[in-house]
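Recap for those who missed Tuesday's class. We walked through two folding examples back to back. For each one, the amino acid string is listed first and its predicted structure tokens come directly after. Nothing is annotated here on purpose, so try labeling regions yourself before you check the end of the notes.
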Amino acid sequence: MNGLLEQLSPELERNLRDFNPWWAGQPQPPLPPYRRWLFEPALRKLREGLAPCVALRGPRQVGKSTLIRQMMKHLLDTGLPATRLLYVPFDELPAFRALIEPVLQTARWFSQNILRETFNAAARSGPVFLFFDEVQNLNDWAPQLKSLVDNHAVRVMVTGSSALRIEAGRDSLAGRLATLEIGPLLLREVGGLREGDSPPPFLPANGWEALRERRTWQELRGYGERHADFRRRAFAAFSERGAYPVAHLRPDSSWEEVAEQLTQNVILRVIQHDLRLGERGKKRDEALLREVFRLACVYVGQSPSQATYLAELRRGVNANLGWQRVLAYLRFLDGTLLLRLVEPLELRLKRKRGASKLCLCDHALRAAWLREVVPLTPEGLAINPWAHDLAGRIAESVVGYFFKSIYGLAVHHFPERGAEPEVDFVLTVGEQRIPVEVKYRRRIDHADTRGLRAFMEKAHYNAPFALLVTLDDEPGSDDPRIVSLPLSTLLLLR
């Protein structure tokens, strides 16, 4: 980069050199050998994508930093000169945020002191890669990034734990930013992390258009049957501990240790740290956010009304609250990706009716926060009959978050409307809709599919088939339009 020599404080310079040990010929800290599903797609987009910048977003502690460290190691191991790689973890030290233009100043310092030529000159002999971890906490990060990629030949990857703040940067970076999303472990990753190997993905990373075909879902059912042993073992581990990597990296650790890690490093990190880093000038209440998150755990997989929220919160925090303030906190949690608010389906310009459905990113967060472990396996529920209703709600939450994590897929729920019965979820793929019902119990009768059948029979909904998500492998319907899938098989879709 051109201009005067960029000066950073000696402390910041030392930190940058510590974060980039390869400049001195030193190795990175040890990394887990298991690579998450997004490794290859993210590396391909970074190297060859049309956009010069790739944003990787996801909840805290799902492995974003590990993933980019693995990518950096791969680049260096495959011949990238060490001086062409910069890594800056902006979440580590507040001193970076004290810079006037931290993205540009850090890049300029790297160009002058490590690369020792301009980015454009360096690009004549090969790419230069810049990794900015947790960039969303910086003020004006997106305009700085725009200036960087507009004027300099670099390939950039940024990560963030806030969907709202990463998406807010897309306006400034239109045409320059590709977004990828990573959540907690996929089911095949749970099994792969524990067993060292897993089946190949059923659906390609960008293959969601295939979801419009009934044949795709029928083939998925067969895929689950072919991998039944792996599926059951992985789902048992998922039921017991959820899908955060920390829960499976050391399966010999107790659930109490795992729950403490999830509470301290995921939930409280959001409540105590991220809450303070939002828009300026707004008063935030940590106790209120705790209570809103608790209610999201209590009403998981459900759509509580405004009156329910307000009554519960007025008792819990002993305050007279308005709905808009509560909604702002729900949207904040949605923005951190700890939960997803699944909105009611709005058709033919009808006014939306019904509240958002609450879907947690991982049922283990609920178990850790409420200190209540609910089994999801058929075997676990057979010996814990008290848990059937709760397991059904949690399963509905799992399904909702799973579908919402497929980037580009529209997901809603369909509240009861007059004579039209409720449908748990409706997927929209192009002009086509797929109604989805979760019936998480051993016995399913004809009445349980009433909502699916009613939805399909309305021609204007354009729903030629439906999905029924079940507890076990037995088909839940003899209607040829309804494809039955056990939850454990559905989670092998990706």
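Example two. Treat it independently of the first, because the proteins are unrelated.
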Amino acid sequence: LERPEVPADATAVIAAGARKPFLEPEVKALRAWLERGGKLGVYLEPGVDAGLDALLGEWGIEAGDDLVVDPSPVSRLFGGSASTPLVAPTREHPATKGMEGTGLAFPTARSLVALTAATVPPFPLALAAESAWAERDVAGAFSGKPIRQDAGERRGPFPVAMAASRAVPGEPAGREARLVVAGDSEFFDDRYQQVLGNLDFFLNGVAWLGEQPDRITIRPRAREGSRLFLTEAQVSAIRFLTVDALPVALFGLGLAVWLVRRSR
């Protein structure tokens, strides 16, 4: 709100996990940024109106007012609930190059729709599985209410992440505005970024936005230190065994050996 436009030297703008709607001056600045050939990444959350529906609609993308649910056992491995669907990157787009066969875990995602009236159709980047559906009772699902697929709810596969690009009129050939939209913003936070291909998917999308194709890659897994969290009772038990019981047991064993040898 302090500046009427996106800074000209910005490589890309990322709008991730908005909890309140963008104000009209902010939406206007983002629209003008895209018209000048800007790059925008929008990462949404179900049940939240980010105030960007009109802007996304101009690019042929509509975010469903729903929650993607996948009851398959594989999805429950990563989020513990059916609202963490396992989705698959597509392989025809530069942002997902080399990611075929890599799963993604999208906790609490909403579905996306490609509008048929779009001048330049958006391209799907990730699809929900065939076992998934778009649950329309978002509030009920978040409250723990038992959910099941009802008539009229979308069945997978359908997009949960999309990309679009447009040539900029009056600009040199090859210059284009780019947009990435995902129905989830939590898949790359501290809890989920190391799950499956989540971090690669996010970073590759940002690299595509910033026109940095050399950074679109599958990164080697970094080996991290393992952590073990113990309760106070477990710490006390370990201290008793190692500091008290074990020395006494060794002393008793040594004394027994000495007595046996002395008796001989």
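Answers for example two:
The helical segments are 24-35, 53-58, 73-79, 138-142, 198-209, 232-263.
The chain has six helices and eleven strands.
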